[in-house]
Amino acid sequence: MTIASDLLQRHIQTLVDDNTQWQTLIADDVLWELAYAPSIGHPAQLSGREEAVRHAIWFVGAVENFRFFDLKVYAFADPERAVGEVKGEGLIKSTGRMYRQDYVVFLRAAGGKIAFLREYFDPVRAARALDTPIHGFES
Fold it and tell me: N or C: which end of the chain has fewer CB within 10 A?
């Protein structure tokens, strides 16, 4: 197991279930890119600890009984890089709708911390669960 693959597993294990522990995994200058998030009105990137923690806490508060499962982590030749695929599901509190998602997450580590995340998810699934429009599409 590499540094990055270990951090990616711990990221998935703690982001929702132990957010305080998750916060110890991220670098102060972490950059978290959310490639498709702008289509549902969320930022494309979170820069620094404060923004990343704020977003994570929002997510934890927005869902009930959220769980990640079927995690597959792929280590790169560079021990500070890894990618993972994971499924997630939970109930969106504000809408009462189930949220089911497939994620792909790229991670780069530096100094034993998560320095960079790039997360891909299906914004249509998120929009339906959150009952929010998809920006750029007419309804």
Answer: C
**Contacts (Cβ under 8 Å, ≥6 apart) of 80:** 2, 3, 4, 108, 109, 110
Is 8 a domain residue? yes
Domain of 8 in residue numbering reads as 3-130
Residue 36 near residue 121, CB atoms below 8 Å: yes
CATH number at residue 20: 3.10.450.50
For 43-98, the pLDDT digits (tens) are 999 999 999 999 999 999 999 999 999 999 999 999 999 999 999 999 999 999 99
Asked whether residue 24 is domain-assigned, the answer is yes
pLDDT at 138: 56
Half-sphere exposure of residue 49, counting CA atoms within 13 Å on the CB side?
11
